């Protein structure tokens, strides 16, 4: 109840159907009653998994959403027409068993290039919808969030209660990690629910929040074939966004962004081999695109990431990464801070207490701030350091 | 004589002037008599070192080049107006001592954010030009290539003799590595010499060869503040490119590209922590920009690079990296080969001899080939794997 099922009208659960060889949960369902307005963001990779292609069609249809079926252990990516047919078969089975009033979406994460074990999945879907009856018969159901985990070392979930003009509105969310897994790549999946009533016109606000959260994190700069972020708004609170005043709307927008930012940071904190969460802030940019580009170049620089692993406030690497971003940058106007200590201004090194900064750089939460000194735009990005463990996890031969 | 001084009319040497604390060579000079037509390519980083800014001005002036002064141990980057004034002081001293008939350029590589030790450099320049007299007095001069080395573990040089319409034309070249060094970032420097007479109009052909060589390699995707590639053509062979027939011109163009490609590959082979040279070939692209983008995305993917370190023919990671490149790609038309073994076609996995491929992946020279199946354009790129040693070298705290 502390996650996607916290807002009214949502239920979510999962079980183990045998896709994963280790017997861990690998199939889950998120249900909204009444059906929810859905807002979606998918991977921009040209190689899109079958469920992503399917969900994009559902999203473009504009219908409300009743169910999201998820599985881990198999990404159903690079599986061609058979992979897509498997998605439609899954959805047909959900429709037959649950008679949803709205649409059904599907997400998958795990190994790519292998077909879904449809026998196991079909049996699993049947068992999913026996919840209640089956629990009495000894069937084990678990939290939805467990069914999307792959190499995640902890569950990523959050909940929030807002009071908007005197009425409670709830938000909940779960996510799974963006770290990359053996033998193939993993995925960022995230589902956010709210019982506020949102119109389709809210999409630009949702997408802007995606840009500021899930699109402002990087473990290793790679983009998955399955990345998916969904916001489901079912209106079960009886509160309509469109009827709220500006202050209450802003409170909801901020609350939603907080939820998404929190999930995004949890993903980074659980990045493969990560020992530190690195917050990268760029201010003083001429445009927000420039600010984001500088953040992204720093976040994706292996030189910067290894320096953070080593506790090294290496401003030369940060400046050079910023300079390679394509953003407008004038070294003589640029200032740099590590963990609150200014180390560079006007393109040149400053004197600072090296012992003090070395101590700050040992923290699990470190930061770098770039002031371009050119304008008023800013962006914040999160990444992790690059450790021996990352190499170890990702160099291991497929078994 | 086996490098930049192989072509007629070029001399080059170096010595240790004390910039490096370990007493290794750190100052060198390349001299062309007669002065040479110069073709140049510099870093695209917005943060450019003082010598790069200076050389760009010289290049835009269009004058012929007599001398290139180089130093290692200090990059003279992020040093502002004082750094630029130091470059002009170096050049003034070269002019006073050597009375060059043409222009003078300067390159630096090493630590960034520190001012050049001008006393040591001025004394070193004076000693450089006592070669001959000073050798009798016990002064030690060494190869030019040693004076540009930083973390390079071997010298990178090459030479080539061509016979064009019955006359010998020579090419020579040296380079230093693009790996990144403690405490700050290093640089790709390369100097190519020829005694062919080339007009300024050759610039597009030179720049195209730079794209196919130095701009088609990646150790870690970072771009230095000091990257410089120069081609000096002094005409001392008495052969004019403009007077040659098409076949001889092509022979020279190919020879030049071979020299540049060889130097570029030596840089990668000496990449920090590298255990393998990875050749990435993309064919069947609609445009050469697409082919290059796919190569670059694969070369810069930490997931792909760690997989090569682990000897893992991980086609899912390669395909996903290609898909994220922004290039036109249709999974169902894409084929992949590792070390000559086809592992994927039409977007799906193929059966292959896993033991055989595992054996091939153990080689120090490995390859991946992507056929996009969309057109006729191709590109080749070189990178190295990502090892524990890379993390170790780059995570070490500055001392």
Q: Explain this structure to me?
A:
2 copies of one chain form a homodimer. Chain A is α+β, with helices and mostly antiparallel strands and 399 residues long. Chain A folds into 2 domains: 260 residues, L-amino peptidase D-ALA esterase/amidase (4-Layer Sandwich), CATH 3.60.70; 119 residues, Ubiquitin-like (UB roll), CATH 3.10.20.340. In chain A, strands 1, 2, 3, 4, 5, 6, 7 and 9 form an 8-stranded mixed sheet that branches. In chain A, a hairpin with a 2-residue loop joins strand 5 and strand 6. In chain A, helix 1 crosses helix 2 and helix 2 packs parallel to helix 3. The longest helix of chain A has 24 residues. Chain A is globular, with a radius of gyration of 22 Å. Chain A starts with 9 loop residues before the first strand and ends with a helix.
The CATH architecture of the largest domain in chain A can be named as: 4-Layer Sandwich
Following the backbone from N to C, one meets helices and strands of chain A in this order, namely: EEHEHEHHEEEHEEHEHHHEEEHEEH
CATH class of the largest domain in chain A equals Alpha Beta
Tally the helices of chain A: what do you get? 11
Shape of chain A: globular
Characterize the largest beta sheet of chain A: strand count, sense, and whether it forms a barrel: 8 strands, mixed
Low-confidence segments of chain A, given as residue ranges, are: 181-185
N/C terminus separation of chain A: 37 Å
Largest interface: A-B, 66 and 66 residues
Structural class of chain A: alpha+beta
